[in-house]
């Protein structure tokens, strides 16, 4: 895009996994001083009045969408021959980059990702919107939470759309009916897209193969991909079944709607996290005992090629060693023993051991499972047990981790904070990130004083205590704020000399916003205000 301004937006740099092919830019809303992602559509002659009116109606509908797993749309506009949509800027990695870096994701991670994505698709469908282009580069991660981007009301018929033809990799992720008619996007094609995303994430491979457009199109139309469980041995059978149903060639064979997929994912989580689920998984494969009829025997002979070596129907067969009664009885006893081992109630020490195995993984999914499956049941079953203090400590630790993660997601996505604990901790953290440990320490201490007696704020009070201990260990200086602000002003001066106006202005804004009411550093704040005002005037005159 040749210009450096687009309406109220100052254009900075291209975004996307492949910027040279992208039409999405990072921009700053000049009046609001807010970073956004703006997608630009170039249209010959700027489009007809009818097309412009339709596009304006579209962005008004997009602005109304409010879902934690969907990037917010702030609106759009026209500038000469260009049209644009401004969206929430998600500072994170795409699923495509994650897979490029890691190869594939664990089934637990795929489950954690699929649940909010399906919820987002269900929300769109409830609002009569079809995404139509679910691909790995349209899923960004805000921390650990997936966010769906590039939502459109009428992707196919709008005059303002990307006209680049799809690549073979993109076609490999699309439903068969879209290859016949690109305008056939429907709720069923979105469900296929979810299945394709899950398949790609689980296996590292797309659900269709081929190097050229023609080869991929043939594969999408005719070839059923190998099931994930045959490529990834630890994939639960229930997830495997759901993914393959989502990838059904016929739309009518897929789940009835996104709500049904949500229920199926809940069942996957329930069964996969249970001990009985492991036993079901182990017994879900082929068993020689299942061959009972003469027809089955005939099929088995044909498959094994016994006729080719002169097998006579009248010959009395000697049972193989694994078909002998003693072996079968021994095997049955072993299965019963396995079930007894899996279902026998765990004692306190065993529950602690299993909780520790999960906690040491340091993943959100493992910590949540440790809390729900072992820590909380230990408190209920052994309220006076020898590990009760350890259990309470670990529950506090998990609650702290969950609270901190949830707050990080809200801050990255500019979601409203729900209570005073979140607000105070976010404010203290901001001082700490800015480099002012002394003020951050005061904020954390005030949290401890104000909220320490309220159980509902316990996770954030514990987080504050953790930060207090860390800052006190590292040491603070009463004059640190003055020195830190002076250093930040010097950093902004250096940025200005290099022509980097936007980063310098961010520093001045932060100083004014954080320390505007601090009389001890008033001269430094006034200097930041003056530089901000002077730079603003200079920019406007230029």
Automatic annotation (TrEMBL):
Provide the E.C. number(s) assigned to this enzyme.
2.7.11.1
| Gene3D superfamilies, A to Z | Phosphorylase Kinase, domain 1 (3.30.200.20), Transferase(Phosphotransferase) domain 1 (1.10.510.10)
EC top class named in words: transferase
Gene that codes for this? Answer: pknL_2
Keywords for this entry? ATP-binding, Kinase, Nucleotide-binding, Transferase
Give the protein name, as stated in the record: Serine/threonine-protein kinase PknL
InterPro entries on file: Kinase-like_dom_sf (IPR011009), Prot_kinase_dom (IPR000719)
Membrane is among the record's keywords = no
Gene Ontology molecular function: ATP binding; protein serine/threonine kinase activity
Domain (Protein kinase): residue spans on this chain: 1-266
């Amino acid at each position: 895009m040749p210009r450096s301004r687009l309406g109220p937006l100052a254009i900075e740099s291209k975004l996307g996994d492949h910027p040279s092919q992208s039409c999405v830019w990072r921009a700053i809303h000049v009046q609001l001083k807010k970073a956004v992602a703006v997608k630009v559509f170039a249209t010959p002659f700027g489009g007809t009045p009818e097309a412009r009116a339709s596009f304006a109606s579209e962005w008004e509908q997009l602005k109304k969408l409010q879902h934690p797993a969907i990037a917010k749309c702030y609106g759009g506009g026209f500038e000469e021959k260009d049209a644009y949509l401004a969206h929430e800027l998600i500072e994170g990695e795409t699923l495509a980059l994650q897979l490029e870096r890691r190869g594939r994701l664990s089934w637990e991670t795929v489950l954690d990702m699929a649940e909010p994505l399906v919820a987002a698709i269900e929300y769109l469908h409830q609002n009569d919107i079809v995404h139509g282009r679910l691909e790995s580069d349209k899923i960004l991660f805000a921390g650990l939470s997936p966010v769906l981007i590039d939502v459109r009301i009428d992707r196919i018929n709008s005059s303002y759309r990307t006209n680049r033809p799809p690549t073979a990799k993109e076609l490999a992720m699309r439903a068969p009916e879209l290859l016949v008619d690109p305008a056939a996007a429907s709720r069923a094609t979105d469900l296929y897209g979810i299945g394709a995303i899950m398949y790609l994430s689980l296996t590292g491979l797309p659900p269709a193969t081929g190097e050229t457009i023609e080869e991929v199109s043939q594969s999408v139309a005719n070839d059923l991909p190998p099931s994930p469980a045959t490529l990834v041995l630890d994939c639960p059978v229930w997830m495997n079944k759901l993914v393959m149903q989502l990838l059904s060639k016929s739309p009518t064979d897929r789940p009835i709607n996104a709500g049904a997929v949500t229920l199926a994912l809940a069942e996957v989580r329930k069964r996969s996290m249970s001990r009985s689920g492991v036993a079901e998984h182990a017994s879900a494969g082929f068993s020689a005992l299942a061959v009972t009829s003469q027809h089955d025997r005939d099929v088995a002979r044909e498959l094994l090629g016994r006729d080719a070596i002169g097998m006579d129907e009248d010959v009395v067969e000697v049972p193989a060693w694994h078909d002998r009664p003693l072996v079968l009885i021994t095997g049955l006893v072993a299965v019963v023993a396995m079930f007894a081992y899996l279902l026998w109630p765990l004692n306190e020490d065993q529950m602690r051991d299993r909780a520790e195995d999960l906690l040491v993984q340091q993943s959100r999914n493992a910590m949540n499972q440790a809390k729900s499956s072992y820590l909380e049941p230990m408190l209920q079953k052994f309220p006076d047990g020898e590990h009760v203090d350890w259990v309470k400590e670990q529950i506090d630790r998990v609650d702290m981790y969950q609270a901190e993660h949830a707050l990080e997601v809200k801050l990255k996505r500019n979601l409203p904070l729900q209570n005073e604990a979140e607000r105070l901790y976010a404010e203290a953290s901001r001082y700490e990130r800015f480099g002012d440990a002394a003020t951050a320490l005061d904020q954390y201490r005030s949290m401890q004083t104000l909220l320490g007696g309220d159980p509902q704020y316990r996770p954030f009070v514990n987080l504050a205590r953790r930060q207090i201990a860390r800052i006190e260990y590292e040491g603070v200086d009463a004059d640190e704020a003055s020195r830190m602000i002076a250093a930040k002003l010097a950093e902004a001066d250096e940025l200005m000399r290099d022509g980097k106006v936007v980063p310098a202005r961010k520093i001045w804004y932060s100083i004014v916003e954080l320390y505007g009411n601090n009389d001890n550093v008033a001269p430094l704040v006034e200097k930041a205000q003056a530089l901000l005002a002077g730079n603003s005037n200079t920019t406007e005159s230029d």
